[in-house]
Hints:
Largest sheet: 4 strands, antiparallel
Number of strands: 4
Radius of gyration: 17 Å
Shape: elongated
Strand content: 25-35%
Number of helices: 2
Structural class: alpha+beta
Order of helices and strands: EEHHEE
Helix content: 10-25%
Amino acid sequence: MTDRRQGAAKLHAAPTGSAHTSDKIFVSDHVIDCSIGVYAEEKGVTQKVRMTVDAYLAPGVRSTVDEMVEVPSYTDIIDAIAEITGRGHINLVETLAEELAATLLGDDRIGGVRVLIEKLERGPVRGVEIYRARGA
C-alpha cells in the first residue's frame, strides 16, 4: 500500500506564463463586524462589512493526493481576515484590502487575489475592489 501523501505540496508544471491559473479558492459574502472608517462617527464602533475574496492558484498548484497541504484553503482566507481586522481600528477599506491581498500572496501557492469589501451600514452599500498578482 502506498502513502497517498507522498509528493504532497509538490508543484506540477503548468503550460502557462502567467502568475496564476483560472483555478481559485474563494470566500463569498463573508459578513463581519469590523472597526473601520475614517469619519468621527465610525471611530469606537463596529459596522457590518461584507467581504468576497478570490485567491487564484499559482501555476502547477493542484491536489493530486487528496491532502489539504497541497492547496491553500478557504480557511486561510477567513483566518487572514480575522487576524487583520482583530488588530484594531482600520481607517480605510483600501488599507484592509491591500493588507489582505499582501497576506494571501505571501503563500507561494497563490498567484493572484481579488478582494471586494463592502460597508453595509451608515448609508448606501459602498466599498472597494482590488486585484493583485504575484510579481505585479
